[in-house]
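Deliverable D5.2: sample structural annotation.
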Amino acid sequence: MQSKHAIIGVTGGIGSGKTTVCKIFEVLGAITYYADDRAKWLMENDSELVVQIKNLFGERAFNEGKLDRKFIAGQVFKDEGLLKKLNGLVHPAVAKDVDRWVQENQDADLLLKEAALLFETGSYKNLSKNILITAPEDVRIERVTARDSHRSAEDVRDIIRKQMDDKEKIPLADFVIENDGRQSVIQQVMKIYKSLLIA
């Protein structure tokens, strides 16, 4: 049986279908920590982190209690050092939040941590196993432009180019799910789920 404190990473590039895969696991009884969503929430609701962000970017970082994402994006785009400093604040806050979440859910059969940049940040090394979701670029572009009306195909291509290539990620993953629209994702998830519960 899967260890009560083991966390399985779920990752993949933009439009690969991470949320879809997590939702299938959740139907089977897994509980998911959506790292990117939680990071956004913590940046506005963790009082310590809010103070740290204000110290880094000034009061302009927030507008009526809401993080001014456009302002922050403009700042880090111009200065990569600022982005590293911001990540240096957010990542420890997320790590602390994950620890709290694990304690709250320690009776679950399976805990998943969904994050876009598990391999890029090296945080995959702290997880028991990692699942990579892949999909052809054209399929990913189609999915994202259908989901995010503000993004053009070129915008998505740009994001894909900036993300680590699947060829580099595959050797780091324990499991790979091909979400190309031709193979059954449910069957692939079931197979992984069974092997994780046996482990």
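Annotation notes: The CA atoms of residues 95 and 189 lie 26 Å apart. Strands lie at 7-11, 31-34, 62-63, 66-67, 111-114, 129-134, 175-178.
The annotation will be released with the project's public dataset once the embargo ends.
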